[in-house]
Amino acid sequence: MEFTIQHFIALAPLLITSATIIVVMLAIAWRRNHSQTFLLSVAGLNLALLSILPALKVAPLAVTPLMQIDSFACLYMALILVATLACVTLAHAYLGDGGSGYPGNREELYLLILMAAAGGLVLVSAQHLASLFIGLELLSVPVYGLVAYAFFNKRSLEAGIKYMVLSAAGSAFLLFGMALLYAEAGTLSFVGIGQALAATGLPSPIAQLGLGMMLIGLAFKLSLVPFHLWTPDVYEGAPAPVAAFLATASKVAVFAVMVRLFQISPVASSGVLSNVLTIIAIASILFGNLLALTQSNLKRLLGYSSIAHFGYLLIALIASKGLAVEAIGVYLVTYVITSLGAFGVITLMSSPYNGRDADALYEYRGLFWRRPYLTAVLTVMMLSLAGIPLTAGFIGKFYIIATGVEAHQWWLVGSLVLGSAIGVFYYLRVMVTLYLMEPNLRRHDAQLHWEQKAGGVMLLAIAVLAFFLGVYPQPLLTLAQQAGLTG
Fold it and tell me: Which of 55, 83, 98, 333 is the most exposed place for a label (fewest CB within 10 A)?
């Protein structure tokens, strides 16, 4: 096929991210400088983000049989790049300069995050099983290194090995499922699979088994019940900015490609598979929320709560008609904002210390009296995650309920309401902890360096955005409506 200037414009976000990876790699080889590496990464990500605007003008465009750049891909590309930018800013505050901070090489962290982001960009524009697998591996492999990046901490190494072994098992299921699907449909493109399955009426047992195995592989990456066992350990062991990346950019990319696969081939989500998805959704909502109740570690609590949030998202995926794609867009944007804010607070709390992150709940007792602005951010994030009105999270949850009601999925709507009620309890518990008075508590709070101040400003901006979208959600809704799928 011939490449025209249009193709390059459409691919610009991915090309610029890839160029940034090479520039950062060469810069590290030439001279190690933490601040320089950070600035190069931020500059590259900002350029990639800006290049989405011209890409939207040429969309929709099938760049190759493997990739489709359309408004849907552009929305999720933007979301992944924004999440990566936030995680890079948090990583700079976390690794620190000078005496206190990270004892090993700092620069490679940025390289790995950029590579994972490039994988995410490939994934959201995939329209072929080959590009789905390439994107997923490019996203996953750097994350193994990122999770184990705090190598001096045994928990971080354990989390890295756990994630690598289980992720490899998930990928094996995914590949086997693809092979079965190819045997049945005779093609690897999403559209071709959809047409081949639609032609036979109900999918054959082999096609259903193939789709089921692919679902296992993707459900592992999204940590849906019963493939969720790695989540709390990996979230707890990974350095805080990495846990933020894992909870946001990584999961958004996988969920976006899952939406594309199920929307383009609607037969894929019918029959037995629809029932399986319903069971997984209800189990994820209930288990995620119930297990979060018992946690005294903030990272583990957020890990379990993310299981529940992706259970909520499955409701829109199962409904798959009417508002579904719009609801998923709105919910993912609000989820990313709130998760980045929550993990950002953990990151800025952890920065001055060596060894373990400040993620135990007792370390947040009376935080209001020491760091009021961090408390304000975490309070808004917890309210938003709980779906309280006037926060972004409420808008997202409202849309998911509307989608479930529209599709008459009463069991799913019921489990969402029940799960949200349980969620309010443990989110409020975290909030109450922040405002407790502790008269005899001795603290060794470090001075804030400039890189932490940059992280703090970004967190305040995130909190304002979460509040603004809760009060005036119109811009977000318009964005989500425009990002419909062009099948």
Answer: 98
Number of helical H runs and strand E runs in the chain: 20, 2
Residue pLDDT, tens place only, 178-214 = 999 999 888 888 888 888 887 776 678 888 888 889 9
Distance CA 243, CA 371 (A): 22
What span, in angstroms and rounded, lies between the C-alpha atoms of 167 and 406? Answer: 35
Q: What is the pLDDT of residues 389-448, one digit of tens each?
A: 888 999 999 999 998 998 888 899 999 999 999 999 999 999 998 888 766 655 545 455
Please report, for the chain, the start and end positions of each structural domain, with discontinuous segments joined by +: 5-482
State the pairing for strand pair 67-69/61-64.
antiparallel
Burial class (CB in 10 A: 0-12, 13-18, 19+), 275: exposed
What gap in Å lies between CA 204 and CA 191, rounded to an integer? 17
The CA-atom distances, in angstroms, between 225 and each of 27, 264, 270, 271, 277 are 42, 25, 20, 20, 11
Whole-model pTM?
Answer: 0.93
